[in-house]
Design a protein that fits this description.
Elements: E1 7-8, E2 11-12, H1 15-23, E3 28-32, H2 41-54, E4 59-63, H3 69-73, H4 85-89, E5 100-101, E6 107-110, H5 119-124, H6 132-141, E7 146-150, H7 157-165, E8 168-174, H8 183-196, E9 202-211, H9 216-229, E10 233-239, H10 242-246, H11 254-257, H12 262-277
Parallel strand pairs: 3-7, 3-8, 4-6, 4-7, 8-9, 9-10
Antiparallel strand pairs: 1-2, 5-6
This protein binds adenosine-5'-diphosphate and magnesium ion (MG).
């Protein structure tokens, strides 16, 4: 078998990835998706990636949101990037060249900057515009156990690319009023993608975020969500916790910033649940 030699900004991907290749595991590609902003998508992409890596998985995070919150959440300086997701989607840089290591062992990222906002418009002119990400990802996905795609807060062309490339959707829902608002539209879009480009797309799980056990609102949103989605809802509840909101400003996942906090423990529990779902 050929030795993998993806170069990551001059370096070579970790030896553990060679192991992966030898074991020929399938790669789970999860779109972290909800067209509502502020529900915990980026927080989940960052912290689930880190927690999965702690459990021994090799993880690639793709930041597909022009806001680049996930990129900065890993402490990456957006002004200092040679390649990013925008340039690779547009074919100006190789996808491989945009894969950067993070400070977390076994977590890699394809970063995003505001430039990506232009992609929604520029992609429209491309042939097979919904499958661009899928085609770029294909040759590199095998180096990872998990690929997490952090989606922008819309159901536009970037999100569509994520759904076409993905094997599953991870849907964070904030435990607030109107949590389920927009879900019908999201499920409609999912069906459309299943019927056209990606028949195997699954709902991997629904994640209740910013849960506050003291409020009846949180409890009733959780109940309502379980009624609607049944066992698709992860048992793990992500609590509302200030450490989770602080960590990105230090450029660290909560598993590093506050490793023993409730938030870190919750994301570790989620990682184990995700791994057990296989
Ligand atoms: N469990 C949580 N507890 C407290 N604050 C959180 C939690 N999850 C996310 N936040 C904060 O809420 C805001 C929105 O979260 P974010 O992950 O950026 O959402 P999205 O990516 O869906 O827009 C951010 O400021 C984030 O730090
Ligand atoms: Mg976000």
């Amino acid at each position: 078998m050929d030795a993998p030699n993806i170069s990551v900004s001059g370096g070579i991907l970790d030896l553990s990835l060679i192991n992966r290749l030898l074991h020929d595991n399938e790669t789970h590609i999860l779109a972290v998706i909800n067209q509502k902003g502020g529900v915990g998508k980026s927080t989940t992409a960052i912290n689930l990636a880190s927690a999965l890596a702690e459990e021994g998985a090799a993880v690639l995070v793709i930041d597909l949101d022009p806001q680049g919150n996930t990129t900065s959440g890993f402490g990456i300086d957006k002004n200092d990037l040679e390649a990013d997701i925008y340039k690779s989607l547009m074919g100006r840089k190789a996808f491989k060249a945009a894969i950067l290591p993070t400070d977390i062992p076994d977590v890699y990222i394809v970063p995003a900057t505001l430039q990506l906002a232009g992609a929604e418009i520029e992609l429209v002119r491309k042939k097979q515009r919904e499958t661009v990400l899928k085609r770029k990802l294909k040759p590199v996905a095998k180096y990872f156990d998990y690929v997490l795609i952090d989606c922008p807060p819309s159901l536009g062309l970037l999100t569509l690319n994520a759904l076409v490339a993905a094997t599953g959707e991870l849907i964070p829902l904030q435990c607030e009023y109107y949590a389920l608002e927009g879900v019908a539209k999201l499920l409609e879009t999912t069906k459309l993608v299943q019927a056209t480009n990606n028949p195997d797309l699954q709902i991997e799980g629904v994640l209740l975020t910013m849960y506050d056990a003291r409020t009846s609102l949180s409890r009733s949103v959780a109940n309502e969500t379980r009624e609607f989605f049944g066992n698709k809802v992860f048992k793990t509840l992500i609590p509302r916790q200030v450490k989770l909101a602080e960590a990105p400003s230090y450029g660290e996942p909560v598993t590093v910033y506050a490793p023993h906090s409730k938030g870190a423990r919750a994301y570790r529990k989620l990682a184990r649940e995700v791994l057990n779902r296989g």
